[in-house]
């Protein structure tokens, strides 16, 4: 029977692996199963580890903040217990209490002032050690009178001895434990805890009295409520001697005292220090449950705030995520196997057609097109093949058209060269006629215009700065003839900078912009300044005017215009600046360009040309 089963399995495997599609199905299904299972297990482990780390981090931060608030509150109570500037008066009243009526009144008034200054105290007791007498004021309904009484045996109580032995002359008393000794027989509601302070003589350091503050439980509970407590979690507040001053479940705290069931957390599961007697602790209950005990110890008084968290709570998000991961993985696995089967059966059919078309294309048949069916990878390959064929034909056509455009451009360039020369010769003839008529001003203007025209039709794109300055001087002479005294020009150009090379007609473009947007729009005198300087890494040419200025919104529009491609540019008003900015970047690289800014007295346009290695220019014909 076993041999028959083995033969059946071998036959089934041979049948499945007999076709290429079945091999692909088997291969990819195996890979998908391994990937899904591996990812699910790995992600589950990582989620559990991350859940522990996140729980520790968030709980430690929360405990640290709340513990700080608790210590600040206890420090405030300690500050309240110190008589400060009235220390001598209080000691004098304590010493003379049994013989001086005024001293009794002083002590009663002192207790009232302390009691009414706070709303978080159940009562205040002042115990006079030598007299074995106490003054008290407690919160019992509306009757808050100061009362006196005598009680022996207080000096033998633990809190009293602890306060006497303390270097700081104080002690804290917890009432969390059942049947806790309150201290005063007449006091029935001490609250959650008490703070006792010994008042000593300044000269002899002999104890004269003990003042006790009984704190309401609502105060501590209100501070601790900032710590979120989920079901099964607990919260414990301990003094440096591990005496509980707050415990939401005292029986749980009693179980935790068994340190034999403690184990420090593995450092790999926490960012804090572990395994050295500090950091989070793993506690195993006798029932087998595990708790993560996260604690924080105060920096001042070393009070400890501890929060035991069940591992079941910590791992609950990880379990939910793991279950969702298994569900998603199973759905993904089923869909993937179905998809793999469909793709595998569809792969082999179009492969031959595609290879045949590719063979035709390699033999020179550039109109070969593959048939596209479906949306699988082979169909996508067919589409890319068709795009390649289309792009190849397009490039062939573009190359042919470029040859035609190049021939037309040469013809138009020859035509454009003939027409300006004719116009230049005509201007020379008119200038000669003006000289014969002794109209020298017109002759100078025509001569300047002729030289300007000759400069413009020159074949160079890069010129020396002195050539550009000569051209701009002739251009401004023509403009001054138009505007008269309304146009003033100031040139600051060092002689050593005149040998630099700049784009031809660049200064004219910037100056023409100032004339168009400043001189033409104002009736008064407009001053145009042209300057050049070297800065770190750039040669800077600035043209500024004292015209009406330009709003920031328009500057943003111009900068956006500089970034647009030529085919996207519809604005013609500032096409000269756009053209110059493009020329600068083509000649010198991306570090070159124009910068426009509005000043307090007009507009400033700066042309930036990189120096040395900052420029991307490879070769320039001069």
TrEMBL record:
PROSITE patterns: HAMP (PS50885). This is Sensor histidine kinase. Keywords: Cell membrane, Coiled coil, Kinase, Membrane, Transferase, Transmembrane, Transmembrane helix. Residues 345-397 form the HAMP domain. It is found in: Cell membrane. The lineage of its organism: Bacteria, Bacillati, Bacillota, Bacilli, Bacillales. Residues 49-76 form a coiled coil. InterPro entries: Bact_2-comp_sensor_kinase, HAMP_dom, HATPase_dom, Sig_transdc_His_kin_internal. It holds the Pfam family HATPase_c. The chain crosses the membrane at residues 24-47, 324-348. GO terms for molecular function: kinase activity. Residues 263-283 are annotated as: Disordered.
